[in-house]
């Protein structure tokens, strides 16, 4: 395990990190998408200028930056999500480069090239599919020597059945193990694991008994320690590939609104009455895209005391969409005339719950009372690997109480004395109040969110 090295004060990356932490702490950067873009830009600058001899040193550095960003503002979960996503991409690119190095001809003269193994299948030494099993240890070996085994459908079915047993028992290769397990210990010959694909294993971090560390070298795919050391020294040459992977994340963030809005016409039908709250850029793009093919009416709650509904109504009206701006107190009375509720999200938790603008909880409760569907449009970068975050005080964000109580009267506070005024910025929406999440990667029910998070992040990065 690589020791965690703190950021040095004289390092320019430290100054960049301090500047972003200060902006997050002072709420100078607001919104999940803005925070995610700022985090990705910081990581790109760090990867460009960082000096590292192994890939583990870079991962430790990025994790340290991620912890500082999360501590600066625990409410902005997008910063930690982007760090986790980039860490996973870096490991994937490193494994791909390791697999290419393994499949290349040996650099040491006189070393035979044995070619790659069958990817993904590593049978135990006692299994008949194992290369370590000698012929004499098989049952009825003498009889089998005189009668060669012919390929048949039954043999093929038996092999498929054996592979299924290996998968259930955990003997199948875990593709998401730590990158340090790509090589064996310095005192033993280094063996590379099978090359994974970009969308390979989705079961995360490698606690199974059949991980890469438990693979026994069988003579094929084994590299000498010199080849392993040579590849480790070339980790710094992977910078262009790593930067390109980070740029793909940035491009995905920049087109999130457009990607979510592509399927808008499948969720909104003509003559519907849509209710929304506040001003979400994702919901705005979703409604504008749907209005190109469908004609409907939008009811917008003004969302006091921020009154973000006013800017949302102005934006939709500029696109000739019929809009009705109503006070928050009229939501329950208008709900019978509404056909669908569409909301944006600040962050989505692994249990299917989400943080949304204050007032969204009352909208969802009214929608459930009148059996109206609730659809949440959000980018997948907002999915955070946290379950009970709404119980933590650090995740609760509050605004100034003067927006609610006012500043009139002696001493301010509307003349009230001894009263504690709470003005939350976000509401927590339980997963049972949401029917569907529309993301840039497709439509998913709340019960499937945990699986999407499992595919997006590695288990070792859940805690930065």
From TrEMBL:
Keywords carried by this UniProt record: Cytoplasm, Initiation factor, Protein biosynthesis
InterPro entries: eIF2B_beta_subunit, IF-2B-related, IF_2B-like_C, NagB/RpiA_transferase-like
Ranges of biased composition (kind: Low complexity): 187-197
Composition bias type Gly residues, residue spans: 202-213
Region (Disordered): 187-215
One of the record's GO molecular function terms: guanyl-nucleotide exchange factor activity
Superkingdom, taxonomy of origin: Eukaryota
A GO CC term assigned to this protein in UniProt: eukaryotic translation initiation factor 2B complex
Location(s) in or outside the cell: Cytoplasm, Cytosol
Family: Belongs to the eIF-2B alpha/beta/delta subunits family.
PANTHER family: TRANSLATION INITIATION FACTOR EIF-2B SUBUNIT BETA (PTHR45859)
Subunit-structure text: Component of the translation initiation factor 2B (eIF2B) complex which is a heterodecamer of two sets of five different subunits: alpha, beta, gamma, delta and epsilon. Subunits alpha, beta and delta comprise a regulatory subcomplex and subunits epsilon and gamma comprise a catalytic subcomplex. Within the complex, the hexameric regulatory complex resides at the center, with the two heterodimeric catalytic subcomplexes bound on opposite sides.
Name of this protein: Translation initiation factor eIF2B subunit beta
Organism: Papiliotrema laurentii (Cryptococcus laurentii)
């Amino acid at each position: 395990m690589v020791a965690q090295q703190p950021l040095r004060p004289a390092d320019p990356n430290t100054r960049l990190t301090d500047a972003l932490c200060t902006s997050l702490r002072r709420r100078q950067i607001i919104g999940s998408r803005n925070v995610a873009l700022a985090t990705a830009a910081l990581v790109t600058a760090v990867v460009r200028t960082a000096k590292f001899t192994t890939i583990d040193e870079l991962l430790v550095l990025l994790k340290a930056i991620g912890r500082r960003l999360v501590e600066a503002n625990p409410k902005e979960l997008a910063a930690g999500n982007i760090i986790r996503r980039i860490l996973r991409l870096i490991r994937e690119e490193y494994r791909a480069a390791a697999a290419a190095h393994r499949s290349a001809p040996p650099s040491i003269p006189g070393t035979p090239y044995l070619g790659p193994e069958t990817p993904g299948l590593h049978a135990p030494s006692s299994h008949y599919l194992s290369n370590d099993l000698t012929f004499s240890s098989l049952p009825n070996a003498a009889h089998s020597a005189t009668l060669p085994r012919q390929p048949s459908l039954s043999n093929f079915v038996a092999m498929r059945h054996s592979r299924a047993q290996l998968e259930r028992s955990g003997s199948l290769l875990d593709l998401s193990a730590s990158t340090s397990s790509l090589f064996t210990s310095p005192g033993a010959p280094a063996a590379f694991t099978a090359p994974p694909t970009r969308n390979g294993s989705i079961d995360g971090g490698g606690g199974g008994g059949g991980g890469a560390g438990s693979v026994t070298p069988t003579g094929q795919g084994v590299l000498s320690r010199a080849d392993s050391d040579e590849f480790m020294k070339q980790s710094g040459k992977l910078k262009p590939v790593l930067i390109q992977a980070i740029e793909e994340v940035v491009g995905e963030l920049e087109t999130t609104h457009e990607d979510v809005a592509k399927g808008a016409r499948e969720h909104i039908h003509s003559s519907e009455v849509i209710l929304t709250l506040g001003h979400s850029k994702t919901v705005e793009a979703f409604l504008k895209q749907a209005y190109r093919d469908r004609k409907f009416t939008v009811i917008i709650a003004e969302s006091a005391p921020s009154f973000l509904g006013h800017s949302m109504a102005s934006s939709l009206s500029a696109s000739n969409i019929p809009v009705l701006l109503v006070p928050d107190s009229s939501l329950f009375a208008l709900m019978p005339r509404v056909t669908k509720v569409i909301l944006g999200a600040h962050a989505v938790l692994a249990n299917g719950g989400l943080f949304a603008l204050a007032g969204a909880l009352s909208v969802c409760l009214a929608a459930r009372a009148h059996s109206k569907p609730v659809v949440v449009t959000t980018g997948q970068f907002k999915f955070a690997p946290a379950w009970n975050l709404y119980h933590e005080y650090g995740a609760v964000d509050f605004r100034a109480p003067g927006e609610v109580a006012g500043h009139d009267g002696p001493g301010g506070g509307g003349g009230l004395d001894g009263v504690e005024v709470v003005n939350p910025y976000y509401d927590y929406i339980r997963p049972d109040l949401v029917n569907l999440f529309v993301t840039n990667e497709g439509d998913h029910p709340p019960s499937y969110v945990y699986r999407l998070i499992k595919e997006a992040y590695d288990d070792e990065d859940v805690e930065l």
